[in-house]
Amino acid sequence: MSIDECERSGRLIEEAAEQHSFLPDHNSQYLDAKYWDERFQKEEEYEWFKGYKEFSHLLKPHLEASSRILVLGCGNSSLTADLFCDGFQSLTSVDLSPAVIERMRQRAADKGMGAIEWRVADMLDLPFADGSFDAVIEKGTMDVLFVDNDSPWSPRPEVCARVHRMLAETHRVLAKDGVFLSVTFAQPHFRRPFLQAPQYDWGRDVATFGEGFHYFVYGMRKGKRAADDAAAADQGMNGSSDRVTLKESPMHEHMEQDDYLLRMSI
Ligand SMILES: C[S@@+](CC[C@H](N)C(=O)[O-])C[C@H]1O[C@@H](n2cnc3c(N)ncnc32)[C@H](O)[C@@H]1O
């Protein structure tokens, strides 16, 4: 091995050890604001799942340059800055962790993106008026709400209540015709019962990205549900079918657990 290769593999080992040091003792800690805040005081940057360029083509058809966008649970990911650089400049990003919000606000200002608004907020109780946003985007944040679930097939009542609080808040802050975009590893048969609950009048759209291990982008357009249901009925599908055919992946059967946080080797 050359000196360069030695140095590189040494750095990779250090990085892996550093990531490992951020693992909580128990999965339920992912629900704890203190865990995230302590983690973000040490961790500079971490991108859950994949970076923006891997799925931006699935987000952009749902967005306009003028869209008022809310990012939920931004963490220290570059998603918000990437959206800004891509021309979506009316951005508000929230997270439970004051440490990460302060860090992201400073980083954005240093890069000339001072127009982005950063706020400490709980996505289960959003501090925004009804109809404030044209798009709400989350990546891996809704998934956190499932971490203490016993089985993805029959979520516990506390998990269901928590997820519906988040969805109700998202639905509330969305303007008429606004869109909720959810980037996740969770398969439609686990997400559909939540996203398509009768209290939400949004339509649905789902697409996949990723090689081998597939991720999903769900797009729910407010006020579009009746039209989607009618279109599905016309095509002889039942009202709960998805409009885009899902690609089967050899990893699908391994994705049937919602405990991605264990499997993602963070
Ligand atoms: C799995 S990380 C995803 C981070 C980022 N979205 C990404 O794609 O890399 C989950 C993030 O959600 C935040 N979070 C967890 N619960 C939250 C809540 N109730 N409200 C707002 N943010 C929350 C955490 O602080 C963390 O930054």
Task: Provide a compact summary of the structure.
The chain is of the alpha/beta class.
Task: Indicate the topology.
Layout: H1 3-20, H2 33-42, H3 52-59, E1 68-72, H4 79-85, E2 90-95, H5 98-110, E3 117-120, E4 133-139, H6 141-144, H7 157-173, E5 174-184, H8 188-195, E6 205-209, E7 215-221, H9 225-234, H10 260-263
Parallel strand pairs: 1-2, 1-4, 2-3, 4-5
Antiparallel strand pairs: 5-7, 6-7
This protein binds S-adenosylmethionine.
Biased composition (Basic and acidic residues): 244-258
Domain Methyltransferase type: 71-181
Family: Belongs to the methyltransferase superfamily.
Describe the structure.
The chain has ten helices and seven strands. With about 270 residues, it is an alpha/beta fold. The longest helix is centred in the first third of the chain and has 18 residues, at about 5-20. About 35% of the residues lie in helices and about 15% in strands. The two termini are about 30 Å apart. The chain has a single domain (about 5-265), classed as Vaccinia Virus protein VP39 (Rossmann fold, 3-Layer(aba) Sandwich). Strands 3-2-1-4-5-7-6 form a seven-stranded mixed sheet. S-adenosylmethionine binds near residues 75 and 140. InterPro entries: Lys/N-term_MeTrsfase_sf (IPR051419), Methyltransf_11 (IPR013216), SAM-dependent_MTases_sf (IPR029063). It holds the Pfam family Methyltransf_11. It comes from Coccomyxa subellipsoidea (strain C-169) (Green microalga).
